[in-house]
Hints:
- The complex is a heterodimer.
- Helices cover about 35% and strands about 20% of the residues of chain A.
- By secondary structure, chain A is α/β, with parallel strands linked by helices.
- In chain B, strand 2 (about 210-215) and strand 3 form a beta hairpin.
- In chain B, helix 3 (about 25-40) packs parallel to helix 14, helix 5 (about 55-100) runs antiparallel to helix 6 (about 110-125) and helix 14 (about 320-340) packs across helix 15 (about 345-360).
- The longest helix of chain B has about 45 residues, at about 55-100.
Amino acid sequence: MPLEKARPSVLSAPDANLDPERAARPRNRLVVTPAVAAEAKSVAPAPRPQGDALAPAVLALQGICVQIDGHQVLSDVSFTVRAGEVTALVGHGGAGKSTALRTGLGLIRPLRGTVTAAGQSVTGWPAYRIAQLGVGYVPQDLGLFADFTVAENMALGARAGPIPPQRLDWLLGLFPPLARVLQIPVWGLSRTACEMTALARALAEKRSLYILDMPADGVTPHTRAALSTALSDLSLQGAAIVIATRDVEAAAAFAQTAVLLEAGRVRWQGPPRTIADDPALLAALLANREGAQ
Amino acid sequence: MTDAARGTRSPARVPHHSRRRAVLAVPLIALLGALALAFRAMPVEGESLGAFLANPAVWGARFVPAMGSIADLWVRTTLTGLASGALVFLMGSGLTLIWAMSGLVGAGRRQLIGVLLFTGLCIGALATGPGTHLDPALGLGAVLAAVWVALSVTGAPGLGLGQVSVARLHDRRVTQILMTCAAVLVVRVGVLLVWGGAPVGVDRPEALTGSVLIAGLPLQTLHVLGAALAITGLGVFWLGLSHTRTGLVLRAGVRNAEVTGAMGYRSGGLAIGAGLAGLGLVTLGSTLWAFDAGALDARVATELLVMVFGAILLGGMGSIAGCFVGGLCVGLIHSLGAIFVPDMTGVPVICLVLIGLLVRPAGLFGRPVRPEP
Lengths: 293, 373
C-alpha cells in the first residue's frame, strides 16, 4: 500500500519561526532546523559530512560493530541521519535494524565504532544522556507501561513538564482515537491505540531526532496513515527521523533515504525508490557478499 | 468499531473496582473477630465446647449477652491490632520501596541496594543481639541513630548476599523473599551462637509511655504515634507516587528501566533516595515495634518477619495501598490470635495470607500477572 506523500524538500522548508514552540523551548535541547543550521554555519564551520548532503547530520554511526552473546550482530555499520529527512533502515527480521537503532541511542555499547549525535561523539554515553540531547524514541515492542493510562504514558514523553495544550491538540489531531481513551490503562487497548500511544509519547515534545523502531510496515493501517502525516509534519519542522522497516515499498512511501541492512552489514544506501522499483537490483544487493562470508 | 470504542469497554477498569472493594477485608476481619470472641464467651462455666455445640437452642439466647460482655475486649483487641498493623505497614512499605528500587538502578549500584535490602531485613534477626540493645535513657532520635550504626556494621555480610539475590534474582521477587528469609535465619542462628538467646529488655522512652484519650477511648501514645506515622506515610506515598512527575518517573523506572532511560530520565539517583527512605521506614517501624513488645528475642523477630512478609504478600507485591490494607489485616488477626492461640500467633497470620492468596493470587491490591506476549 504505497502512500502518496510529497517529499519535503530541505530547501523549501518553512521558516523555523512558524513553529510556536521553538521560542518557548528552554535549555540546550537540540533543535536543528535548516534555518538554525544555516545561522550556525555562518558562525562556526559545522563538521560537514561527506557526500553532497545539504542538511546537517543529527545522528551518525561510523564503523559500528556490535556483538551480543558472542554473536556478531553488526559489522562495520555506518549511516547518517540528517535533519529534515526521513531515513529508513530496511532489512529482514534479524538483519540488525533494531540493534543499530539501539546502539545509536546508547542502549547497546558497540564493540568498535563511534556514534555521533548533534556534532559530538556520544559513544559509550548512557542512554538517558543521549536522549536528553533531544531524541524521541519508540522501542520495537513499543515499550509502553501497561498499567499506566494513555495520558500517563504520553506525559512521560515530555520531560520539561506537562504537554503544552497546543502540542496535545496536534497529537490528538494526528491520533484521534487516543482522545477518548486518555484515562484508560494501556493494557486494555487495541493494537492500533497502543501503537498510537507509543508514537504520541515519542512525539510529545519537540525533538531534533526521532528514532522509530516500530516497523513501518508492521503497524495497523490506521497507525500507518497517522504515521505518514506525522513524519511529513516533523520533517517539515526540520527534525531528523529514522524508522525501521522490512518493506522497501514502505520505505519508499515514508523515507527520502534508505539504508539496506542484511546480516548486520550495510549493503546499500540511497533513495528507496531506486530499489523499490527494481526488484532485481534489490535481490542482487541482498545476495551480494553472501557467499563471501 | 473504532479503536476508541473498543478501548472504552476494555476490561481494564474491572480490577480498579475490585481493588477498592478489597479494603472491606479489614472490617470483615474485625467483625469475624467479634463473632469469634462472642462464640468463645458463650459456653457457660463448666460447660464443654462439645456440649455447647450440641445444643443449638441456647445459641440465640446467649449471643446478645456474650456480645455485650466481649465488647470492651473486642475494642481493645481491634485497636491494638490496628496499631500493630500500622507498624507492620511502616516496615512493609519500606521493604516494598527498597525492592521496587533495587530493580531500577544500574548494575553498578545494585551492590549498594543489596546492602540496603539486607541490612533493612536483617534488623528483625539482629533484634536478638546486643547491637540493638535500646537504652531507655536515650531519646528516640538517638535510638534511631544507634540502629543505623548497627545497620551499617551489618552491611558488610549483606553485600555478598545482596549481590547474589539482587543481581541474579532482581526480577523474581518471590524468590527474593525466600532468599531473604533464608539469609535472616542464617544470621539469626549466628547471633544465637555468638550472643545467646536471652531476651533483651527494651524500655519505652519516657515520651512514649502513657496513653491519650481520643474520642473517649484511652489509646497508648505509642500506638497513636505509629498510626499517625502510618497514615502520614500512606498519604505521602499516595501523593508522591500517584500525583507527581517524580513519582511517575519512579514508577515507570521500576517497570522498565531501559525505556525510562531511553526517554531521557536518570532514575538511578532517585532510586537511591527512595531506597534510603525505605530503609528509614523499616528502621522506624521496627524500633517502634521493639518499644511496643518491651523485649526482643528470637520469637519476636520471627513473628515480625512473618507479619511483614505476610502483609506484603496479602496486599499484593509492590502495592503500597495493598501493604497498608494487608498490614491492618495482619495486625488484626495477630492481636486476635494472641487471645485464641497465644503460643502460636504466627499461625493465624499465615492462614490468613494463604486464604487471601487463594482467593486472589496476586494479592488484595496486586495486579494480575499476565504472561508476556
